[in-house]
Predict the 3D structure of the following.
Amino acid sequence: MNASLIVLELAVVLLGLVVLVLDWFTPAQDRRTLGYGAALGIGVVLLYSFFAFDGRDPLYAFGNAYVLDGLALWFKRFFLIAALLVLIMATEFSNRFETGQSEFFALTLFALAGMMFAASANDFMLLFVSLELITVTFYVLVSFLRRRVDSLEAGVKYLILGALSSGFLVYGIALVFGAAGTMNFNELADKLTNNAALSHKSLLTTGVLLVLVGLGFKMAAVPFQIWAPDVYQGSPTPTTAFLSVGSKAAGVVLLMRLLGTAIPDLAFTLERLLMVMAGATIFYGSLCAIPQRNLKRLLGYSSIASAGYLLLGFAVMNRAGSSAILYYLAGYLFTVLAAFTVIAVVVQQAGEEDISALAGLSQRSPLLASSLTLAMVSLAGIPPLAGFFGKFLLLKAVIAEGIRWHAYYWLFAVAVVGVLISLYYYFNVIRAIYWSKGATDLTPIAVSLPTKFVLGVCIVGMFWLGLNPDGALEMAVEAVKVLKLAS
Amino acid sequence: MSLLSAIFLIPLLAALVVLCIPRNYKFVIRLVTLGATLASMVLALALFAKFNDAPVENGFRFNYEKEWVHVDALKLDIGYHVGVDGINLGLIVMGAIVAFAAACVSREIKRLEKEYYLLLLVMTGGILGAFASLNLFFFYFFHELALVPTFIMIGVWGHGENRNYATFNISVYLSLGALIALAGLIALYLQSGANTFDIVALTKAVKAKPLPLAAQSLIFPLLLFGFGILVSLWPFHTWAPLGYGSAPTATAMLHAGVLKKFGLYGLLRVGIPLMPDGATAWLEILAFLCLGNIIFCGFVAMRQKDLNLLIGNSSVAHMGFIFLGIASLTLVGVTGAVVVMVAHGFLAALTFGLSGALREQTGTLEIEKLGGLLRQIPFLGAALVMAMLAGCGLPGFANFVGEAMVLFGSWRAFPLVTTLAAWGALIIGAVYMLRAVRNILHGPAKPEWAALKDANAWVKTPFVLLLAALLLLGVWPRLLTDKIQPSVAGIIAMAETKTADKATRSGEVKKAAGEIKHRAVQPR
């Protein structure tokens, strides 16, 4: 037992509890300080993670259920940065909550703790528990605007579909346990290597497929994507942002662990399935995004398409693909948070979420306009921003596999068509910002200092990852070293 | 920062400066743009002047290399590498001059000036960077950087009712072309096994160990059609006249003049030297496709009622000559193609600039509504006449030199195509160009145009510059051809040795020997 390893998670949970306790002593008008305080605390934890661990050798705790290695550390820092920015965004947003601002911050912190546990999951038990911690807190976060029908509707939808997918997940875990007799990833991998008959057991493969359902739901991959647009649209904007970055990345890290640590010998049999899922997800997300007018719904579909691009990296099942996934995610973090931060401010001003709310934004606030434009450009995969290099790495990984199997060329073609379609809807947003005619309200929007900070971080991140990818890519490569993958 | 890098980094840095200037300081923004493009033009001219004395390394001068991404575990090595040889020297100089001219004519923009100049500078930097890059990644990176502002500029500051449709059309076509080319470039990188995006290193690796034939015949068409769409190769040209007709003047100048040459440059720099066997099979098809450009689009241009659409179609038609020159794979033909690339850049910029100046005053470009304008606007009119004559291939202008070389060079390989092309150029081109001149500039003066004012010194500057370049290269083509020729000779040599290798390998020595003789370079 090596409990000191979970110090980062403990700190986050403690921070959440402190926020809840301090809430009793804080007058309503000062609750915002709690949000900034929580963000500051997260910043401290983030800094501490750099001093405390280097992630060179994997460290285990709780009977090998918990692992702290390069990959886990990478994702923990990822989630911490995401939560830091989301908390600042939420604090700025919090005057829309009638009550329970502090609860919102605390729940965000608890979800963060779940994500950080997920990053370290080395056992189906921890996988399930951490996912449930994330999902259950999100049920509340999604329906937090409880006077708004949209928000409640989103909450109910997320609850029902989330519970359903949890059911599949737990059933799958039971089957895997039944077939292999272990829940631990390392032990399962050993058993698969030593016992070839086991990998042909249909009980095991069925179990793995059901686990895949649960993780596909988290990532919003086709055919488990149906909840995403509605929930994205209905949730409070900070929740949507955290959902699209944190929750998706949690699905990604767990799928990485599953394929790279638990069932590396079996993973190749899933190749076809992952390819089809990737292609279908890209197509579905890109095509459905075309007619959308609601900004958050549009980003919901765009996040589905992004899940498809991430799945490309899983389909190729090698180091190049996995490090490309991490790189893409890092770029996605800054890009999507920039977009949602702008949307949160604009929606607050305009009171509606239609694209037309962006009309005249270029004159109302050049900072917001250029941030959203950069985010869209990055999402569309245009140089010199982060999205371009991420997509480049993923597509390169896919086409490199084409030599082995020509079907990858078709997958590449699908991805390219997806990129092409995405240009259209991302540019629709840019068009709305700069040259829509119906701009009636041209009063300048005041952007608060914390929002400026978030946008600044995101913009620097986008440019940094796009223009100077060397260091970040090196980190991504280091992080995926722990996975058993073809080089 | 090397001289070459400065040429395209100055506009990009100026874009950052423009970003920081408040939007009310329109004059300052314009001044920064003009200053940056002027500086990069001056540097480009300096580059041209110093070219002969600069040390040569692997066939390139002004080399500058720096590591950018180097990850051993992924076998990923992308370095920043720029350099010039005869082929891209002319394009860079032309691009820098056209960019300055484009900045000059941008006075027509009256709203959202800050965004406009920002995009113009990014586009300029992207174009020049793409031509200077000797690394496939940056080659594509800079092109994309220039391409996207094009779409936005057409959409936001474009003219006419068709603007939205044109924006949509050009975005889809060009993005598709770029992505197909990207697929080809990545496939090329992987197939070479050299594990480098560096064009010089790739060329060396391919020289040592040619790509497998199957791969060549698969990848070359990707590049040919990917780049072909970017250059408006018939039948993928429909975006061009429409897009240029709707684009703001400067965008049309920069895209039709400079950015469009990227595809041709890519074929010459990457496609043909690295995949000679793939190329030989496809270049014959290309030769026939280019007839579609020259003749079909020539006829289409004849029927146009709008000056901008006419120029747009004629610019598509001119691309046919460049394709023909490249397809000939002879020293004279390819050199001619490079000369046409440069000359057409000046010409397209000049014609689109003039039509923009005309539209600014008259508000229309419908040829029927105009007439007798030469009396009111002698300078603009005369410049337009000269541009039109240059477009028909009149001796004295650089286009004549290039087109004549293309025709000479391709005669042996494709006599039929060359005959038809010459006919198309001389007759069809002359018909629509001269008819436009007659209808717009000559004839009875119409009363509604009595108040037109001729260009003042400011407006004249860009046109004088572009005309001077056309005339200088027209009367002194060796200024360019002497520099182009050695580089082209290297490409031809690569293309031909590879054909021989292939033949020895497959035992078809006889046939290939005949082919080599057939394609051998005669004049020198």
Notes: Strands of chain B lie at 61-71, 76-84. The first strand of chain B starts at residue 61 and ends at 71.
